[in-house]
Design goal:
Length: 462
């Protein structure tokens, strides 16, 4: 029986990064994957294909609506959706093959098939038994189902089907005003679909700072997206014409019907802890089916660890990757660590939304005294030159010490801009530290500096 120091279950960003880091540290490593290609949700059906389509649809939208403002005429615009989808497939394949290459380079053994923990230090993969001193569960997550709305991945789709449509829907109804709904909704809106988002709460993206979420909603409405907040879907019926949804106020009340030709179900994701053999191995799960771990990613069973979407915390690829590195280092006897106070998150719509650290609501709830510094992109020269002036940078700093506590950006390339503020939080910087750094002109990053200045009431360009 082949024996490994570390056997990782799942090759998503958590699993494959863990496998590579463990191999770099001199351990004998295998990674089991039941999908035909490596890279998990992120590379195959998540981050990468969605960003490929967001980029393509953004280009299409710019050619249709923005080029003429720059004095560029393109004649009659056409959409070759089959080519757009094929390009997305090429981007995915380049990334998944990249992981294969990295496994070969680092001598990580790829075990093909479904893995199951069969006993202490034992894993079966595709019927073959392996011994492992350490087992890392990195089996990820899957779309959360909704009672009364049966997914067929053709007309009622999850994100997976929503990234594979063969024609632009006339009316796409999205259930859930979260990250997936707004990113994939944006793709199809830009390509010409009417998009209606049905959200249970009275606001979109509940994890965002409320002021940013409200401004984001206004921008999306300006782009033509429609929102039905405080509403819930109680049934979905397939008809010849498409799908008929029954919608009610969240608190109950009169029901009405909405017709859609495609419905995207995006009400969250749940841990894939089933099918890995956790219960038989005696590994404890929490009330939401996530694998319970301590601060060092250890489960209650010696030699079994877990990381990524299958444990608690934000379901983000970079969070899974950092946990993969940390657990590999802990297994190798080093001091692996993840700072959960400095994990950025980005919504890749246009404008983008990015945040790190705490929201205003969280600070209020914790009774922390804070100051706010804000700067709008309308006052930033580069944003004006780009024609992308929607949004603002918002910085939250401790009122007494000036330490940065949170940063939230709605605007062009917010995802790139948040890196500076993530670094600042990681290094325990103050708003004044950021304000004193020289930022190149003319760049969008000057809005970050100005927001930091604004926290001290001394922005220059406002
Ligand atoms: P996963 O990537 O889910 O990988 C788990 C792997 O384990 C899968 O390949 C699965 O087949 C395999 N597996 C499960 N059980 C077994 C078994 N028993 N045996 C063998 N293999 C098994 N995050 C971001 O940070 N940025 C984004 O832009 C972003 N966009 C997203 C867009 C979409 C549409 C979706 C759905 C998600 C997106 N995410 C994004 C979230 C991101 O994909 C996840 O947080 C990330 O993939 C989690 O990594 P993971 O390694 O924990 O699990
Ligand atoms: P989400 O948690 O972001 O949003 C789900 C939304 O659905 C919430 O607003 C919630 O209030 C609402 N909702 C829940 N039940 C509902 C119901 N019955 N009817 C109507 N609305 C309902 O989940 P989503 O969008 O499915 O994404 C899952 C996760 O995937 C994200 O939380 C994120 O971690 C990850 N992801 C990250 C991306 C990124 O980093 N750019 C992109 C896409 C996904």
């Amino acid at each position: 029986m082949a024996e490994f120091d570390v056997l990782v279950i799942g090759s998503g960003p958590g699993g494959y990064v863990c496998a590579i880091r463990a191999a770099q540290l001199g351990l004998k490593v295998a990674c089991a994957e039941k999908r035909a290609t490596l890279g998990g949700t992120c590379l195959n059906i998540g981050c990468i294909p969605s960003k490929a389509l967001l980029q393509s649809s953004e280009n299409f939208h710019a050619a249709q609506h923005q080029f003429s403002d720059h004095g560029i005429g393109v004649g009659e615009l056409t959409l070759d959706l089959a080519r757009m989808m094929a390009r997305k497939g090429e981007v995915v394949a380049a990334n998944t093959k990249g992981v294969e290459f990295l496994f070969r380079k680092n001598k990580v053994t790829w075990l093909k098939g479904e893995a199951r923990i069969t006993g202490p230090g034992r894993v079966s993969v595709g019927g073959e038994e392996y011994a492992a001193k350490n087992i890392v569960i990195a089996s990820g997550s899957e779309s959360t189902p909704l009672k009364g709305v049966e997914v067929d991945e053709k007309r009622i789709v999850t994100s997976t089907g929503g990234l594979e449509l063969s024609e632009v829907p006339k009316h796409l109804v999205v259930i859930g005003g979260g990250v997936i709904g707004l990113e994939i909704g944006s793709v199809w809106r830009r390509l010409g679909a009417e998009v209606t988002v049905i959200e249970f709460l009275d606001r979109i993206v509940p994890t965002l700072d409320a002021e940013v979420a409200k401004a984001f909603e206004r921008v999306l409405v300006k782009q033509g997206m429609k929102f039905r907040l405080s509403s819930k879907v109680t049934a979905a019926k397939l008809t010849n014409a498409g799908v008929t949804l029954t919608v009610e106020p969240s608190k109950g009340g009169a029901a009405e019907e909405i017709m859609a030709d495609i419905v995207l179900l995006a009400i969250g994701r749940r841990a894939t802890s089933d099918g890995v053999g956790v219960t038989e191995a005696g590994v404890e799960l929490d009330e939401r089916g996530r694998v319970k771990v301590d601060a060092h990613f250890a489960t209650n069973v010696a030699g079994i660890w877990a990381i990524g979407d299958v444990i608690a915390g934000p379901m983000l690829a970079h969070k899974a990757e950092d946990e993969g590195v940390a657990v590999a280092e802990i297994i190798a006897g080093q001091a692996g660590h993840v700072n959960y106070e400095a994990i950025p998150s980005v919504i890749y719509t246009w404008p983008e939304v990015a945040s790190v650290g705490r929201s205003e609501e969280e600070l209020k709830a914790d009774g922390v005294a804070y100051v706010v510094g804000k700067f709008p992109f309308t006052a930033n020269g580069r944003a004006r030159a780009m024609g992308d002036t929607d949004g603002f940078v918002k910085i939250l700093a401790d009122k007494t010490t000036d330490r940065l506590l949170g940063a939230h950006i709605l605007g062009p390339d917010a995802g790139g801009l948040i890196a500076e503020l993530t670094t600042a939080i990681e290094f325990g910087a103050s708003a004044e530290d950021v304000a004193r750094i020289c930022h190149a002109h003319p760049t969008l990053s000057e809005a970050v500096k100005e927001a930091a200045l604004a926290a001290e009431g001394r922005a220059i360009h406002m």
